[in-house]
Amino acid sequence: MLKYSLKRIGYMLIVCFVVITITFFLVHLIPGDPILAMASEVPEDVRVVYMAKYGFDQPLYIQYFKFMGQLFSGNLGDSLRYPGRSVAEIIKSCAPISAQIGGISLAIGFIAGVVLGIFAAMNLNRWQDRTIMILSLIGTTLPVFVIATLVQYFLSVFWPIFPTTGWGGAEYLVLPVICMLVDPLATYARYMRSSVLDVIGQDYILTAEAKGASNFRIITRHILRNAFIPCLTMLVTSISGIVAGSFIIETVFSIPGLGRYLISAINDRDYSMVLGINVVITSFYILTVLLADILISAVDPRIRLADNKGRGKA
Amino acid sequence: MENEFYSDDFRIIGCEEESGEAIGRAPINYWQNGWLRFKKNKVALVSSILLGLIIAMTIIGPMISGYKMDIAALTTRNKWPSAAHWFGTDQLGRDIFTRVCVGGRVSLLIGFLGAVIVVVLGSLYGGIAAYFGGRVDTVMMRIVEILKSVPHMLVVIMISIVLNSRSIPTLLLAMTITGWCSTAQLVRSQMLQISREEYVMAARIMRVPPLTIVLKHLIPNSLSVIIVNFTFRIPGFIFGEAFLSYVGLGVQSPNTSWGALAAAASSTVLFYPYQIFFPTLMIALTMLCFTLLGDGLRDALDPKLWR
Amino acid sequence: MAVLLDVKNLSVSFRTMHGEVKAVRDVSFELHEGENLAIVGESGCGKTVTSKAILRLHDRSGGIVSEGSEILFEGKNIVRMSRKEIGEIRGNGISMIFQDSMTSLNPTMVIGKQIAENILIHKKTGKGESLSQAKKLLELVNVPDAAERMNQYPHQLSGGLRQRVMIAMAIACNPKILIADEPTTALDVTVQAQILELLSDLQKQFGMSVILVTHDFGVVANFADRIQVMYAGSIVERGKKEEIFSDPKHPYTWALLKSIPGRHQGHKGELYSIRGTPPDLLLPLEHCPFSPRCEYCMPICKKRRPEEKYMTETHGIACWLTHEKAPRVDNPLKIGGEARAR
To answer: Which residues of A177-215 are buried (b: 16+ CB within 10 A; e: fewer)?
Structure first.
């Protein structure tokens, strides 16, 4: 188990390095002069000074080594758009906001989705099942910005219960979370249902029945754990979806999170911001993939064994 | 009772050569069986008909509406749906029905082409990895894992910025550049699974050439998985395009798409909700149909689900 | 010997998209205390469906037990029992071993817990107590290093060991009847013998009755007291082991016995095989179901279904050849003087 985890961590560091390198060169491929993008009427001499200040006048590979060197000390450079503020500082202030919304949405969506999925499977083809399945189908068919627009319209304008936009207390959290949890909720409800149905058809459920186990026991001891494992592997995909959703949700609700900063940094050609946010999001994403991997191997004995024997063939 | 028995009935005639071997039900092949099952699935059938209607609408809609998609008319701005304008008009007085139809062409085109690209690329890549196996497989799959370790939308956004163009090919490139990875993994694991089956072993022992094994066993048996994956991928691209349109990286005027229409109308939803309703409805319907169609195809084509 | 299980007019069918498959058709039989009964037949003949029906394991898979069916266990009808009542019998009064031990064990639960679960459900013992009993059971079925095995997962054991675990699980509550559905089919020949020996030992030790479901007459010869041959959902011949092996009457039994390798191979050393395939169970089968494949088929066989006729008190045959008007046909196995019960 420990060996497995260490191997995964080493692998993760390599992936991080590769991805950051690719991102660095991609960002610097973005056409357009970053200084001109911010203010079109900049005198040439001022432009040269600024280019030198941010190191844009140096060859790309020197910029790269400089960037990587700074990265190890946690320095992501200075923002072009907000002079005087370092990228790391801005990220530090807005990352927790995104993490809060994303984390809460994913947690609620995952747990509620799994519970609904089990409930639907247990009431297969009855009205409870059909209602859950139809609602979750609809949930997956609406683009997130439409959901956000609708939620904003009904729960904030039509019935002014929650604030329309902005960030502050808990009441600002409700609407974004509602919008964000629709997708994981619907996904897991559908996925868990089919996973439970799949497990119910397995021979070992028949064995448990032949033992005289009650329905409750069969569900809690035999079905849930086995049906749950495939759902864990879906977590990675959901996190990717949450990240994408946050770009939109934070823009719609004017929340000062990573997503909105990224979108505005892109429009402002704020190289160092784009790069910094990219690095942070990607590293975070790779970390969660790693955690999900370790979590799955802790729950599924078959994977643990495969590792002991060497994963060459897996 | 005894009278009913005639001695003639008791003479040995033996078994007929043919009847013993007769098979009760007429044999049907895999695709026929799949089609039979698919036909029985009302939901999937209705979905495919509805999809056909949507596609037909995007093709002939602009001809029957009598409006051009980009003719602005200041006198008919923001009109609610009526006999003259079935879906109403937008801020510039353009007929929304026509625009939804034309936008649908772009959305569906991106959906289909995107899915074709990722499925073809992914199947080839996954197939090659599974076929060669060993170190080649390990290296190829590690590359896929690295490509997949960046959140998909982040890649899409970066690529569309770098390419600095909003044309359909650019959008497709941005969305497919890492999009094929999951299909590659799926096809690889499916092919590996099949190549471990006894019938492939048997073919190997009988010295069937590798290419024939690929053509006769691996591809036909992975085909159902690939087809189902294709169906599920289409809505993903329609969604992705809508997402990009909202962020401002989607197709640009004068061209439009369902996503672009919905995104443009989302700012005026308070006053003209119908403007966002129709494009969203089309997106939702298309998504719904492809999802249900995919479900139906999976049920129909997976022999493990047959009883 | 007292009758322990009395199956009367059992019919089980399944709804499929092609129509209703009648897998078991009006089967009746008894099982006595301490007896070994073997149900023999080709795959698809309804032997597994019959055995599962005894524990009502078709509830979930959509099997329909028809109206008139009765399965009396200790005088109570299992078909009409509530979920709770049948739950008390399963694994306790009657338990079952399945064919594929790999898929029949929960992959994410250690085997010790899986065995202990049976005890936990039926006996009022604590967790620790049932676990230590599970360990004793593992030792009883000759699993080496029982203490260590307790904490292993099914995929870490060999096929033979897994089947021993299945047996330990099945006998955990001293059941009166043990149903073994093809318990050795998935195993190596050498392991097969060990498992059968173990079953036989345990049967004597605990005084259980065993219903052995198999397609293999070789397995039956060493194990069973009584044999029932099934074809297309019905019993075509039944009798004591000696009666079936030394004096079989049904052409299907002849054919099955003839196809055992090594026993009745012809002069050229060829293996005998029965021509054709079993009938489609979607059909009503108003005639003798075996008639299309029978070498001794008569016109009457294609018109009406034969009634079961008893030669002795225990030996019953459902075949028109036993009718008085039928020509006398000798057991083809006897002609060469080869047929003898082992």
So the answer is: bbbbbbbbbbbbbbbbbbbbebbbebbbbbbbbbbbbee
Is pLDDT at C178 greater than 70 in this prediction? yes
Q: Is A125 an 8 Å CB contact of chain B?
A: no
Provide the ipTM: 0.84
Q: Which CATH architecture has domain A92-267?
A: Orthogonal Bundle (1.10)
Report the domain count for chain C: 2
Between chains, do B151 and A285 touch, taking CB under 8 Å as contact?
Answer: yes
Same domain membership, residue C309 and residue C220: no
Judged by CB atoms closer than 8 Å, whether chains meet at A211 and C95 is answered as yes
Whether pLDDT at C268 is above 60: no
Kindly identify which residue of chain A lies nearest to residue B278, measuring between CA atoms: A146
Q: At which of C224, C241, C264 does a domain end?
A: C224
Residues C278 and C202 in one domain: no
Q: Find where tokens 């471990």 sit.
A: B196
Which residues, listed in sequence order, are joined to residue A108 by a DSSP beta bridge? Answer: none
Distant-in-sequence contacts of C196-205, Cβ < 8 A, 24+ apart: C196/C222, C196/C223, C198/C141, C198/C142, C198/C164, C198/C167, C199/C167, C199/C223, C202/C140, C202/C141, C202/C167, C202/C171, C203/C34, C203/C36, C203/C178
pLDDT under 70: residue ranges of chain A? 1, 31-42, 54, 304-314
Least confidently predicted of A61-75, B162-176, C102-116, C267-281: C267-281
CB of A149 within 8 Å of a chain B CB? The answer is yes
Report whether pLDDT(C101) > 50: yes
Q: What percent of chain A has pLDDT over 70?
A: 92
Q: Report pLDDT for B115.
A: 93
Distance separating alpha carbons of residues A95 and A246, to the nearest angstrom? 11
The predicted model scores a pTM of 0.81
**Tens-place pLDDT, residues B87-124:** 777 777 677 788 888 888 888 999 999 999 999 999 88
Q: Which residues of B207-232 are buried (b: 16+ CB within 10 A; e: fewer)?
A: eeeeeebbeebbbebbebbbbbbbbb
8 Å CB contact of A210 and C91: yes
Tell whether the model's pLDDT for residue C336 goes beyond 50.
no
Backbone Cα Rg of chain B: 27
Residues in chain B, overall count: 307
Query: Regarding predicted confidence, which is higher, B256 or B269?
Result: B256
Q: Is B42 on the interface with C (CB under 8 A)?
A: no
Q: Which of residues 220-249 of A touch B (CB under 8 A)?
A: 239-240, 243-244, 247-248
How many Å lie between the alpha carbon of A214 and the closest alpha carbon of chain C? 7
Q: Which residues, in sequence order, are CB contacts of C187 under 8 Å at separation 6+? A: C159, C160, C163, C195
Tell me the average pLDDT of chain C. Answer: 84
Contact A204 C105 (CB under 8 A): yes
State the pLDDT at residue B216.
80
- Look at residue A42 and give its three-state secondary structure: coil
Tens of pLDDT, residue by residue over C18-39, are: 788 888 888 899 999 888 999 9
Q: Touching B: which chains, 3+ CB pairs < 8 A?
A: A, C
Query: At how many degrees (to 10) do helices A271-299 and B152-163 cross?
Result: 160
User: b or e along A24-48 (b: 16 or more beta carbons within 10 Å of the residue's beta carbon)?
Assistant: bebbbebeeebbebeeeeeeeeeee
Q: Could you report the per-residue pLDDT of B196-244, keeping only the tens digit for each?
A: 888 888 888 888 888 888 878 887 888 888 888 888 889 889 888 888 8
**Residue C184 corresponds to which tokens in the numbers above?**
């050795």
Distance from the A213 Cα atom to the nearest Cα atom in chain B, whole angstroms: 26
Residues C135 and C169 in one domain: yes
Cβ atoms of C96 and A210 closer than 8 Å: yes
**Which domain CATH number covers B126?**
1.10.3720.10
At a CB cut-off of 8 Å and minimum separation 6, what does A192 contact? A113, A114, A116, A117, A118, A121, A227, A228, A231
